[in-house]
Amino acid sequence: MLGQVEAADLVKEFRTFKRKEGLWGAVRDLFSREYTTLRAVDGISFQIEPGEMVGYIGPNGAGKSTSVKMLTGILVPTSGVVRANGHVPYRERMAYTQSIGVVFGQRTQLWWDIAVVESFRLLKRIYNVSDADYASRMARFDEILEINRYLNQPVRKLSLGERMRCDMAAALIHNPPLLFLDEPTIGLDLLAKENIRLFLKEVNRDYGTTVLLTTHDLSDIEELCKRLMIIDRGRILFDGPLDELKRLLWRQTQIKLELKDASQGAAMEQFSLPGVEKVRLDDVTYRLSFDREEQTSGDVIRHAVGVAEIRDIFIEPESIEQIVKRIYTGSTISELQRR
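^ that's the sequence the OP posted. Answer follows.
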């Protein structure tokens, strides 16, 4: 089915050899090598339905890039099954690549030394896009991404934000049902990020495009994706709604206190409760962080009010960045594995 992705017990192993040191070691390597096997992806399984926008995250070396390369047909799995858009990616590459779009934030698919519009025209012919469809899509791309101003410039003269807008348009010029995005907003300013996110939302809404998004910017995930997959050491730790992840792991609560005036700072410095971390943000503002299983918000607030005069109180839930940081550092992996 177009837009659907299936992976079952997907494994990818790399065979490498240990290089011996020095010139004599290099000579010995020519005749005798000691090989090791690295399992980068360790039996992952998931299914993405047409029209879904799924975030796919993990620390460096977790296996996400390797698994995305298998999904796009760049790598052949060691074992397991992968199907996308009704194709086995590594077996039917020609037909499959006609039905997907790919954007890698660190690389461009545009030709470096020619005008952007010439790259678009080449892609139009490669994907057999009709004149009417091409004109319609280019108008739509300009409406949201404002790319017309860059069309006659060589790619090498574009800023990163300008190039990413053009790369996004290039990946969707043939209206693929499935789009893979790898760090699409890396290095962009806030306005450029917002434009890219708005564009992706509209493409998903209007065309039902399935999107798999890998990123280290978790605000991309919160803005675009209702479902999140977390991979670590080649295995899927979590696959479910973003709200469920927050429900499972939202343990930390943060309370921001605004003191009556700067003179109350000395009194607030006397505040102390077991398990509560106190951070002074400025002369009149403090942040208190604690585990909900160790302290309640009510107890912490009552204790703070008892030691200093407070003008205002704000309760802040733990951000998704903080939750994922705890997962990456291993402090919550056992909780995810028990679910």
